Sequence to fold (298 residues):
Amino acid sequence: MKYVKCNLCGSDNYTILFEKEVAQVNQIVRCNVCNLMYANPREKDADVVSIEKYTPEFVLSQIDNRKTQRADKEALKVRDYETTKLFLNQNFNSQKAKLVEIGSGLGYLANFFQQDGWDVVGVEPNTGMCKYAEREFGLKVISTTIEKSGIAANSVDVVLTIHTIEHVPDPCGTFQEVYRILKPGGIFVLETPRYDTLMFKIMQERERSLRCDGHIYFFTHKTLTQMAQKTHFEVLKIDDVGRSMTVDRLFYNLGVVSKSSKIQKSLNSIAQKFHLNQMWIYLNLQDMQRVYLTKPNS
Fold:
């Protein structure tokens, strides 16, 4: 087990919100100084570290043999970022602008921007996923973390990271590295679950995103804004967004929330019987936050 101090303010004064194995494998605490929620102590390596253990051959075989729904999931979610593309195109000429996606995965979202004329580079520690993105989309992908990527200072117009910051062991360090590589006036777009919603107050330890063992930081509007300001970013806007998902994925999430293996099996059986993986919906419970930050010109 690894004990950590608050990544936002450095305090080790916290209140336990959920003991380990109540919400997820880790104990979840809230800092008594700044209110950041985080996993402490941690039972296992952060995903950004442990993901490097998978061989490229294993990852590609899982995807190519459809033993994972990752490709379908990424492809479906691309449609949710039309508004982000519009916002960025209003600020930059995409034909000339450089965009880096941190945690680019299989490359579907990076390719969405590449097709729009952006000069795109992905950064992804999972080498197998990088090879898939290169093979399928011809993307430039650096197989490592952003801190080890070697991207030059003041060289990037836009940095995008979607549902990654909650997985990394040092989110404040990631913010600082993004600030370093962005040009003055550059924009940092990140999306992560939020935990200052009515849904979280009602669901508590049953809340779906909280129950994901890979999530080790849990942000509210306030704590995410505080981290941005600490690392010298200015907040442009915050959108509370939803996500596109297949109906079978919705059923899976409902099963997770139920905490009942019987309900999970029943929902999975219904999903398979009616081929609900072929149907999709857009669901917005305002439990996701998409934040647009900028590196000041001066």
Notes: The chain has eleven helices and eleven strands. The chain has two domains: 1-44, 45-243+287-294. Residues 195 and 201 are 8 Å apart (CA to CA).
